[in-house]
Design brief:
The complex is a heterodimer of chains A (114) and B (111). Chain A is built from no helices and ten strands. Chain A is an all-beta fold and 114 residues long. In chain A, strands 1, 3, 4, 8, 9 and 10 form a six-stranded mixed β-sheet that branches. In chain A, strands 2-7-6-5 form a four-stranded antiparallel β-sheet, with no helix packed on it. Chain A starts with 8 loop residues before the first strand and ends with a strand. Chain B has 111 residues and is an all-beta fold. Chain B is built from no helices and eleven strands. Chain B has strands spanning 4-7, 10-13, 19-25, 31-37, 43-51, 54-57, 64-66, 76-78, 87-94, 101-102, 106-110. Classes of the chains: A mainly beta (114), B mainly beta (111). At the A-B interface, strand 4, strand 8 and strand 9 of A face strand 4, strand 5, strand 9 and strand 10 of B.
């Protein structure tokens, strides 16, 4: 499985952009990069995903390098409610491609402060 | 839409007892999944289903069973609870191999 490497923790001031890096150097050509976050012990919340191109939605932007070996999640204006554990995940096909799984690592704990 | 709902929210079991964790989704998703999350760790896949009547093992299936008789429901059964099954259990659903959406979780303590 393609593994991801993320910093254990990061801090960000409220109102500033939070840039969360992720390394996935063993990713295969057809594997997507997904970002989820988990606030306290709630269920993981989907943020964004991408394959090759940069993506943006109402929550965040995802920047994927041209070689696809790393990506950055950007929260443009972090608020206290964005304090959470952020997971960078490579979606892997299983069972001869009829299904997929998300392999969660330990993620990055983002602390947004006043 | 309620999305993915799970019951109960919290349960204490004695060693050897059995229980069923319930999961229901109202998004008409064909794929459903069960994950467990141990303290300070990421989620690990227990079982998944690609449609009613079809289930398959994930990474950590031992000690668990599942069934999928309807599109909406995907219960997880623990037959003989063990302390190693103390964890938080998350159910998720998706439309085929697209984005998975998670429920709020069931916290299980086996003593």
């Amino acid at each position: 499985d393609a593994k991801t490497t993320q910093p254990t923790s990061m801090d960000c001031a409220e109102g500033r952009a939070a840039n969360l890096p992720c390394n996935h150097s063993t990713i295969s050509g057809n594997e997507y990069v997904y970002w989820y976050r988990q606030i306290h012990s709630q269920g993981p919340q989907y943020i964004i995903h991408g394959l090759k191109n940069n993506e943006t939605n109402e929550m965040a932007s995802l920047i994927i390098t041209e070689d696809r070996k790393s990506s950055t999640l950007i929260l443009p204006h972090a608020t206290l409610r964005d304090t959470a554990v952020y997971y960078c995940i490579v979606r892997v096909a299983i069972n001869t491609g009829t299904a997929s799984k998300l392999t969660f690592g330990t993620g990055t704990r983002l602390q947004v402060t006043l | 839409n309620a999305g993915v709902t799970q019951t109960p929210k919290f349960r204490i079991l004695k060693i050897g007892q059995s229980m069923t964790l319930q999961c229901t989704q109202d998004m008409n998703h064909n794929y459903m999944y069960w994950y467990r999350q141990d303290p300070g760790m990421g989620l690990k896949l227990i079982y998944y289903s690609v449609g009613a009547g079809i289930t398959d093992k994930g990474e950590v299936p031992n000690g668990y069973n599942v069934s999928r008789s309807t599109t909406e429901d995907f219960p997880l059964r623990l037959e003989l609870a063990a302390p190693s099954q103390t964890s938080v259990y998350f159910c998720a659903s998706s439309y085929s191999m697209e984005t998975q959406y998670f429920g709020p979780g069931t916290r299980l303590l086996v003593l």
